[in-house]
Amino acid sequence: MRAAKPAASLALVKAAGWGKGLSILTRITVMAFRHPWQASLAIGATLVASAFQLTIPRLLGHAVDSTQIVLSGGAAGQAAQDTLLTTALLLLGASVVRGLFTLVQNYFSEAVGHHLGYRLRLACYEKIQRLSFSFHDSMHSGDLITVGLLDLEGVRMYFSTALVRMVLLFVLIGMGAYLLLSTDIVLGLLALSFVPFVGWRSSVTQLRLRATWLELQERLSVLTRVMEESLGGIRVVRAFAAQDHEMAKFDKASQSAVELAHQRVGIRVANTSAMTFSFFVAMGLVLWVGGTKVMAGEMTVGTLTSFLTFMTILQMPVRQLGLMVNAFARASTCGARLFELLDLDIAIKDEANAPDLKVADGTLRFENVRFAYPAAAQQDVLSGVSFEARRGETIGIVGPPGSGKSTLAHLIPRFYDVTGGSITIDGQDIRRVTLQSLRRSVAVVQQDSFLFTTTIENNIAYGDPWAKDAHIERASESAQLHNYVLGLPSGYGTVVGERGVSLSGGQRQRLSIARALMLRPAVMVFDDSTAAIDAGTEQRMRIAMRRYAASRVTIIVAHRLSSLMHADRILFMEDGRIVESGTHAELLALGGRYRALYDLQLRPGDDALSA
Amino acid sequence: MAEQLDAERDDARGEEGRPPRAVVGSHRIEEEIFGKVFDTNIIRRIWAFVAPYRTKIYWAVAAVLAFTAMQLAIPLIIRYAIDHGMRPGADPSTLPWTILAFLVAILINFGASYLQEMLVGGVAEDVLFDIRRAMFGHLQRVSLSWMDKTEVGRLMSRLQGDVNSMQEFLETSVLSVGDITLLFGIIVVMLSLDFKLGLLTLSALPVLFVVRLFWLPRARKSFMAAHETNSIANGALAEAIHGVRAVQGMDRQAVNFMLFDDKVRANLRTHLTAAKYAQVMVPIVDSLTGLAMALVIVVGGARVLNQALDVGVMVAFLFYIQRFFDPIRSLTLQYSVMQRAMASGQRLTEVLDVPIDIKDAPDAKVLSSDMDGSVEFRDVVFGYNPKHPVLKHVSFKVNPGETVALVGPTGSGKSSCMSLIHRFYDVQQGQVLVGGHDVRSLSQDSLGRQIAMVLQEPFLFTGTVIENIRYQKTDATRDDVVQAAKTVGAHDFIMRMPDGYDSVLGQRGGNLSLGQRQLISFARALVADAKILVLDEATANIDSYTEMLIQKALVKLLEGRTGLVIAHRLATIREADRIIVLQNGELIESGNHRELMKNEKLYSKLYNLNYSSFDDIPEDVLDDAMTQPAT
């Protein structure tokens, strides 16, 4: 009964332009600095740690040189020994300090990410909970989960993998380059010669890996779907002896994924090997040229050693340039999607200072209601619908598929807002009161009954989590669920839902009826929610609920006439309008559409078959 | 936004606290993450999948060893260059030669690393897909009763998560060969360069080892806790997305927000703890590295001063020290990967070991399409649990071309009859014959081709309408498909879809109504053009308008075929050539409508209750009808 699904908007955000990307990154950065202490500590510690790291090669070089004093004609003995000891102690100190500051850097940059993730998760959850039905209609739930899980992760990781790493790389590469070049310009250039190549290769590789990763996910999701459908529809597969056909489908999907996976291995490996090679080539050049200089006495072995160690230290961060570039790219696309979700306007919300709904007589009134789904605004699903229902009354709504019955039911709790006209409860327009008070007064038993992964009692008490056992049992009895539950191994404590005991369609519907009863609503709407319940059970349910029905308006939308024949008034809908209205007897006497439907359902004679 | 969130959260908390019955998401994650470190049985099973690629694996291991050897050689070459190539007065040709040796080493290094990663990465991907294929293929054959008991979601997590952790395992296990070699190689090289200095330097190793031994169990606990809270929080988010309509309908947003906050907060806490554990090793490793270097400088340096040691050796030591903590770090990480892989491997073998109960007999015959199309049950006893038979000594015969309606209350054994014809299960006693042959003597494939089945809940596959209709007969022409759709009355609504027969159906035909899906499944059965049609009539959820179309289509579908229909609608039942009434697994009546009405047993009673469908009869009325002694 839901509106046709238009293409999901969020999933369509393409790679944003530079300006947009920059503004997204700025926004994440600002959010990260909402934890100013931790963020500053992380960045400060990065500076200190990299500075100390850079002293290590110098100290090593110094130590090596100290051992060469004899060769260069200095006096061996206590002085040289002392120098060695001092250097060693300085080295030890530098290592310890570097280690500690790296700890601070890593810990706090992760902490900032986790705090950021915490806030974003809450914001995301709240937004998803509050966005109206029309949004959820238009959005594939899988895409929303992707935003809430993967995109959020991309944004969360930004601080540590992009921002802090950038500081680290700039300091290490920049200061390292300065130190090397200022010591010996030629050797410095040789030592740094691998940096541009490796930085470029690793960035290109990471971006390509990211693009192919997205493609791979796409192909894997096809594979997942093939497997899921084949296993879910195993009876059909077997019934048609189509195992070979399914295997062929699997192989096709699997093949396309494995090919890409191999391709990705190729991209990755070609580049890591090339990067390592270029690094070693640079090292070989330094060794050669440096060695020649040492021989010529233009340079000490210590300086050469410190060059070589510098290179070893620089190697890792330079390779990580690609990861950093990737982290920026990822944060900007993930952020674009995440923020688009977080910035969405909630279409249906409280007006400023809206009062609570005050239910006195509990009269529900539709006045000339017109409605079109936002996704197809030019096509009215309901038009000119007017009726009134007083406390104690039961209204049945029936009509062919697509006549607007369910839509009408969804308007009462404001799952959607009317396009024209108004719906009032005791004279108060439902758009002018708080959503909370409205939805506590209007309960809709929906077509697809969602079960939460928790016990049966908690599921029944979903709308009233403070409820006492006795209330739950009473609601469950009225919904004809009690006896079934008592037969379960853990009774009301039995866990149902995705990971629990599975209930049949009828049992689920009874559970959601019990759930709605818990709210003791002023208006109770059954949206074709007894279709999977057998007629006898439904009848007993009706009798059980009769005593409550006196205190509320009941609206029953159904295909099956036996579900609503007893209603005080029956509205027959067609093409979004009420075309017939009256009691069962009146409508039968009228001999119109209702009558035809009645004949069709109650005694499908030979004429119906041969028609 | 964040400020607003804080305010909202505090409000909610101040107001009412956590309601006793409210939960969001699940409290626990489902499965063991870590298993035994080493399980020979599982290793053997995994090896069976790797074995076809073993030549590649041998090459990869060889490459890893070559690679590691070069890692060890490079500092030695540098050492040689320093000690022999650069010394004042050294032979000027020594340095270039040494550089050449360096070049050779890095070329080998390049080739070996390329070869190794390429082979390992490729084989790991191949094995991953092979395992998945083997499992999927196996699941296509295991008994339906096992499939009924097993959730698809659970199987999917085997086919995805568990298979992935096997891939990770394969990649790391080859790498750990390299790590172990590197570790021992460094130890050997250091000791042989200078035994005493080597011994002294290596004294840092046991320290790290002991520290990690203490660290590991605690750290792992914290990592697991982080993993667990993360899954829990994600599960709660997924629940909010899937159940959003129920959440809004019940106005649970505020309470859920509070509860979700608890979960994310717990997740934040465990992640911060895990980060502490992960990072605490950094200063320890750095300090030990620093200590080892300081020792080399003080002790080694003194000996260089005394000219008891070449300076190049000292430099080589410094290079090795920078490398030798790496293997220890990655080896301990690989330990966790191993444990995870063992737990996954355990679950994978469980699936692969599910016995296949129903197999073709070695001499299975092919059921040819010119068989007569008769179906016969001879004294069939059958139960999903052999102790509680669902069918008790049922015998009946359906003649070629006849339509038989199976009627009876829920649990009377109608669906079981249907499954037995197709040999979804094997009988415990008696025989089921199709075309005069015991189904157990026929090949399942040929049996399936002669029996078309329509299930109560029509299951469509993602794909176009035409693909779905010619699901079994992939070579059916477009005309065949259109003709079939026209016959069952599905053509009109298919043509109204945006791309007609090429319109893509959403997941499981989600963009169609149940009735429309039913009609497409009729067309699918029609195209399959089998001699025998087995049909479980849909009951609930179909509006009367579509219902009418379906009734008409059914008549067309049964023309010229042997039909077995689990019937609910009186219209269908009355049209049948024969009606078989089942009760509690026993055949209690059989005959056509007129005969059974004269019989005045269960059927006539039910019929006279005047319901359009037997399913509409209230249970109590039904109970009365069934318990009254038959006249």
From TrEMBL, chain B:
<dbReference type="InterPro" id="IPR011527">
    <property type="entry name" value="ABC1_TM_dom"/>
</dbReference>
<feature type="transmembrane region" description="Helical">
    <location>
        <begin position="57"/>
        <end position="82"/>
    </location>
</feature>
<feature type="domain" description="ABC transporter">
    <location>
        <begin position="375"/>
        <end position="609"/>
    </location>
</feature>
<dbReference type="InterPro" id="IPR003439">
    <property type="entry name" value="ABC_transporter-like_ATP-bd"/>
</dbReference>
<comment type="similarity">
    <text>Belongs to the ABC transporter superfamily.</text>
</comment>
<dbReference type="InterPro" id="IPR003593">
    <property type="entry name" value="AAA+_ATPase"/>
</dbReference>
<dbReference type="GO" id="GO:0005886">
    <property type="term" value="C:plasma membrane"/>
</dbReference>
<keyword id="KW-0547">Nucleotide-binding</keyword>
<keyword id="KW-0472">Membrane</keyword>
<feature type="transmembrane region" description="Helical">
    <location>
        <begin position="277"/>
        <end position="298"/>
    </location>
</feature>
<dbReference type="Pfam" id="PF00005">
    <property type="entry name" value="ABC_tran"/>
</dbReference>
<keyword id="KW-0067">ATP-binding</keyword>
<feature type="transmembrane region" description="Helical">
    <location>
        <begin position="197"/>
        <end position="215"/>
    </location>
</feature>
<dbReference type="InterPro" id="IPR039421">
    <property type="entry name" value="Type_1_exporter"/>
</dbReference>
<dbReference type="GO" id="GO:0015421">
    <property type="term" value="F:ABC-type oligopeptide transporter activity"/>
</dbReference>
<feature type="region of interest" description="Disordered">
    <location>
        <begin position="1"/>
        <end position="21"/>
    </location>
</feature>
<feature type="transmembrane region" description="Helical">
    <location>
        <begin position="169"/>
        <end position="191"/>
    </location>
</feature>
<dbReference type="InterPro" id="IPR027417">
    <property type="entry name" value="P-loop_NTPase"/>
</dbReference>
<dbReference type="InterPro" id="IPR036640">
    <property type="entry name" value="ABC1_TM_sf"/>
</dbReference>
<feature type="transmembrane region" description="Helical">
    <location>
        <begin position="94"/>
        <end position="115"/>
    </location>
</feature>
<dbReference type="Pfam" id="PF00664">
    <property type="entry name" value="ABC_membrane"/>
</dbReference>
<protein>
    <submittedName>
        <fullName>ABC transporter ATP-binding protein</fullName>
    </submittedName>
</protein>
<dbReference type="GO" id="GO:0005524">
    <property type="term" value="F:ATP binding"/>
</dbReference>
<feature type="domain" description="ABC transmembrane type-1">
    <location>
        <begin position="59"/>
        <end position="340"/>
    </location>
</feature>
<keyword id="KW-0813">Transport</keyword>
<keyword id="KW-0812">Transmembrane</keyword>
<dbReference type="GO" id="GO:0016887">
    <property type="term" value="F:ATP hydrolysis activity"/>
</dbReference>
<keyword id="KW-1133">Transmembrane helix</keyword>
<dbReference type="InterPro" id="IPR017871">
    <property type="entry name" value="ABC_transporter-like_CS"/>
</dbReference>
<feature type="compositionally biased region" description="Basic and acidic residues">
    <location>
        <begin position="1"/>
        <end position="19"/>
    </location>
</feature>
